[in-house]
Amino acid sequence: MLSRDLYLNPILNYFMERVGATLAGVKPAELINVSVNGENKRQWEEGKKVLESCYRFKVIQVRERNQKVQVFFLHRGALDRTLQQRPVLLFLKRLHYPTEYSLENYVHTLTQRIKSSYFPHEIGVFLGYPLKDVMGYLGYPGLKLTDIKGWRYYGHGKLSVRTYEKFKEARNNAKLILQKLEKNQAPEEIIKFWDTYSHGEPSGALFRKT
To answer: Which has the closest alpha carbon to 43: 86, 7, 75?
Structure first.
């Protein structure tokens, strides 16, 4: 059992709120900077143990600099489903991702590229952005910038808006659930809740009204 001091772990609470849509399986992944200055470092190390206690989620510390840790947090089921869409796979393979797909290999390729001097803008598909928006940002012809809200929208904006609103709603709903759970549940029990009820369904089944 982890220390009950984790109830008062502001770094863990902040992180869980930021990745709420991913905890719910609606957004496949997040890339977040976490402060590890002073006491924050201990809080993050304890919080990371909680996050890593469930297989459904994966925490990858990409790099640490200037007293901040860059963290790639993913929902295995949601990200695997996203990357295995045929147009996404073809797109990533054109960018020299492994010919044989596996979630582990593709995530490893991405995180290694983040560590390099060249930032991999294809990360957008890992984060759940529509493929057309990622391709438009990379300069593919025929895709004009049409709006900016959360990220840059290219081409017809309907899918982009719908995706943005889905992420926003999931994050807000997850925040409400977290606020309720945090009142009487230890952090490891909160993660177990998400592990039980989050299945990576793109429709966000966890939040459907019955």
So the answer is: 7
Cα separation, 185 vs 191, whole angstroms:
10
Question: CA dist 195 to 20, 84, 143, Å?
Answer: 13, 22, 38
Q: Where are the domains of the chain?
A: 4-196
Contact between 152 and 11 under an 8 Å Cβ cutoff? The reply is no
Rounded to an integer, what distance in angstroms lies between the CA atom of residue 186 and that of residue 181?
8
Strands 57-65 and 152-154: unpaired
* pLDDT attached to residue 32: 94
CA 128/CA 82 separation, integer angstroms: 7
Is residue 193 pLDDT above 90, yes or no? no
